[in-house]
Amino acid sequence: MDNKTLMASLVATGTLLASHSALALTLYETAQDKLTFSGRIAAGSSFVDDTHDDHDPTNAGSRVRLIHEHNFADGWSSIARAEWAFDPFFEDGTDNHYKRLLYAGVSNDDYGTILIGKQYSLWYNMVAYWTDWFWYNGATAQGSFNGASSDGGFDGNGRPDNAISYQNRFGDWTLGVLYQTSRNDVPRSVGYSGNLVDLERKYTAQGAAVYQPSDDWAFGLTYTHSEIDGELKSGSDRDENVDAGLLAARWTPGNWYFALTAGEYHNLVRDGEFEGVANSDGIVDKARGYEGVALYNVKQQVPGTVQLYTGFNRLEDRDSDARSAFYLAGAAWLLFDDNLILAVERKFDDSRQADDSHTGHDETDLLVRYDF
């Protein structure tokens, strides 16, 4: 993969990090410049066993984006991307929009790719997304979105804010580093059981490496250190530094796709991820996560592509028996150049409370999504 291809993959990240592309609307195009508008509209519904559930459809990650690309002389290119999530169904009376991504960068086949702004982390973009292939569920145990903010922006593992990253490819290796600057405007008084009222990030440092010896095999490693201080309700300060690592392997023979990730997380996971766990600061000292996916693409048998897939998510508290876990079986039908997705997933809950008692319910989830 040259760096023009790498830059193109960064553009595609928001759609699924998969092989299909959305029907982007070209607003402006010349030999050097291109401005496109794209996004998705998605709705999902869950049928939870043994509970009263109205099954009303809900927003499932709808978003819009603007992307500008420019080709310079001497092999350089640039990208600027703005992406916003929104609720097209106005479930709470508003469109509930918020910023997902806002970054700019340059790329060169020899010198690599540099991005500045709110972007996908190297943790996710290079390694963790390998197991984020379920259409409705998933990504609960890979460490990308388990931090202080739901998008992983504060701790740096999901979509970090105030970040600069660099990636380049050297033979079979792709290497990347990311640095996130300070932030001290994140109140933490709501959202989990601890008495921590405020967090201050001094910096985040992150690295990632992917080794791909063949078209079918790839191995990944990423590590994050985020220097964070916390303040308790008592007024005392507390060290809340995040240290997290993730290993991954991927095998993609023919129409098959297999991937596995395993992670170790210190001060990353909130105790609200588990039942029966309550820490003084609301943050789990040590957690471990595993995700796996196996998928088969059925092609040329029906219009479009049918995906049959299975896998698991397992996030464990290392200091108790608590875990958030499930097994899953699903099927999806991708139509109109893979831009219309109809999916059904059956999730089998395997979660446990801190005392090892069972918690949670099995459920069936439906998804309708259109990428444009």
From TrEMBL:
Predominant cellular place of this UniProt entry's protein: membrane
Superkingdom as given in the UniProt entry: Bacteria
Biological classification of the source: Bacteria, Pseudomonadati, Pseudomonadota, Gammaproteobacteria, Oceanospirillales
Protein name: Porin
Membrane topology: Multi-pass membrane protein
Gene3D superfamilies: Porin
Cell location: Cell outer membrane
Position of the signal peptide: 1-24
Keywords: Membrane, Signal
PANTHER family, A to Z: OUTER MEMBRANE PORIN F-RELATED, PROTEIN YDDL-RELATED
Species name: Salinicola endophyticus
